[in-house]
Amino acid sequence: LPNVSYLGWDETVRPHAQPAVTAARPDEVEWPPVSAIVALGLTYADHLRETGQKIDMLVPPMTFAKHLRTLVHGDGSTPVPTSDAIRHALEELEPTLGEHLGERLAWFPAVMDYEGELALVALGPIDQAQLAAGVPQPFGLAAANDLTSRLVQVLGEDNERQLEFWAAAKSFARFLPAAPRVWAPAGGLREIPELTIETKVNGELRQEASTKLLIYDLPTIVRAASAQLGRPLARGDVIITGTPSGVGLRLNRVRRKVAGLIKDRLRKAELLVSQYASSSSLLRPGDVVEVDAGPAGRVTTRLTV
User: Most exposed: 15, 48, 108, 240, by fewest CB within 10 Å?
Assistant: First the structure.
């Protein structure tokens, strides 16, 4: 047809097979209606090293809320936020931030990154005192991918509102794909079981770590999440427990120290976008991310425009 452009045919490309639908295991349950999502940051020792950060173990874990629109169960796709969506998110945080950043950047790429994690799902009311005393509580577990816009996140670094930026960076629609069902160990949990979290991007292994590297125990994680919510945990509350090393954006201690010398956060954003342009480790539309947590399930997500 005139004035119509067609994409070229590539004989080497074949459509991906649809994942087989597997029957639920006896120790799996359906997701409860989710009422709140609390995310923890910087909880794995190896991730702390790769980001060049230190934490005070006497201080509770960093927590923030993720929007409920982020959670999707099972394999599927997640659209990369448009430049306009990124600008809107920034202006909800600070009304003039998008305008000021627009003076530096012609467009606002999301700068997408993956974070393979373990979701802790409350399957009933949680008694903190009983948990601290070693009594198992009704928790289930599910593999999850805490997708993140690093551009939004970096604009909040070294800012007293840092965690608000983290929440915004991780709260776009479908930014929390998770396993289709919840693993519910018989008798509940009194500690995080030893599992291996693996994350692959286009078939390449990027993350592989044991939950033994978590620096907080289950009672501490629950206490921090409860404080974030301002109430005891109840059925349908979800805690995203943090990611191990191997994320796309890595900043060792030396590079973080150098970055800390740059006080202009808009300049930091410019440098991030420049890095993204030549990076093969950060995500782009078409990339496929798979997170596998053994008995806690697996989830595969394709990024789309």
Answer: 15
DSSP-derived pairing of the beta strands 237-240 and 298-304: unpaired
Tracing tokens 């590297």 back to the chain, one arrives at 213
What does CATH list as the number for 28-304?
Answer: 3.90.850.10
The residue written with tokens 């960093």 in the block is 62
Quote the pTM value.
0.89
Helices 83-93/162-169 angle, 10° precision: 150
Burial 164-180 (b: 16+ CB within 10 A, else e): bbbbbbbbbebbbbbbb
Q: Which residues pair with residue 72 across a beta bridge?
A: 177
The residue among 202, 245, 203 whose CA lies nearest residue 49 is 245
Q: How far apart are the first and last CA of the chain?
A: 26
Whether residue 147 contacts residue 177, with contact meaning beta carbons closer than 8 Å, is answered with yes
Q: What are phi and psi of 166, to 5 degrees?
A: -60, -45
Extents of the domains making up the chain? 28-304
Q: With 0-12 CB in 10 A as exposed, 13-18 as middle and 19+ as buried, what is 144?
A: buried
Tell me the pLDDT tens digit for each residue of 105-134.
999 999 999 999 999 999 999 999 999 999
Whole-number Å distance between alpha carbons of 93 and 230: 22
